[in-house]
Amino acid sequence: MANSLVEIPQDIIDNVIAALGNDKSSLKQCALVSSSFLPPSRKQLFYSISFGFNVEACDRLHQALVQNPLNPSFVRRISINHLEDGGSNLTFDQLVLAILQLPFCHLEELSLSAVDWSGFSGELKDALSTLMHSPTLKILYLTQVDSVPLTLFRGIVHLPKLYLRGVWFHSLKPKGVATTASQTVVDHCVWSFWFATGYPTEGSFLPFMSHLRVLEINIDPSSATMSDFSVLCYLMSSLCASLRSPATLEYVRLNIAFEGNDEPFDYVSFYSGLRCDPVWRNLDSIVTRPTGSRLQRVDIDIRYTFPHDDNIVEPCNDKILAVVLDNLPLLRDRGILFVEAKAR
Known about the structure:
alpha/beta; 3 domains; ten-stranded parallel β-sheet
């Protein structure tokens, strides 16, 4: 009997390739099996790409992307790490621009990490800005990015999710607002801080806050009192200054971590700081801003840890809750405020 080849259904091939995830080596081997394996393997290979300050790696990536005009269209996620201005390295500058200027027509996620925006050339800034304003983009990650201009967010038609981690903006001084700035639409912003000092007391107009639906703030600055949380007051003041009609904000969450290293722990300062901090006044006022508020829930999660010592008076959860609740009467009376305090 003559041997015959059994044709594997395409959906089974697709599932096998999908199961390989980001295993580049296996995907490259699968691409060589047959013409049925090549398209799904290539699609998975280029689903996520990443690069940084490495000329050889950038060159290989560029060659792989341009060897077939379809390859850039497979890219859904781009991660750029430790990218620096090449300075005198013209080859590197040209490669980075050549990659970023490719038609990534289905890009969904963009991540920029450990870079200084002010060190980029004008062309590189334009290329990155174009990607950030891509109509298909769903998630933007900015991690440890310095000197980010607020104007970068202007004109973003619709971005479902924005992650900011350790980001420093170029200027946070109160300013007048350009008309186009209020047209920026970001649904969900998650903003995390490791250092919470050095921020102005007066809020700024932040374009990405103007039509937020969800705002989550994570603060963990290794501090034992609210005196080192100036960023919280700035953020709440900025939120009030930034929200625009029609009202969109539905949910706010604050994750606050206190960590005391002093012995003995000054619990008087701890409670006093919680009670007197102006952040609560600004937070409570968002109930009425803008007109027709759609706010449905505010969660405040307080975690604390202090040196283990039998002589140290630990904070009382009930007292912490009482201090916060007393400072947020509007939110409390509407029944949408939920506060939790626990040792961690």
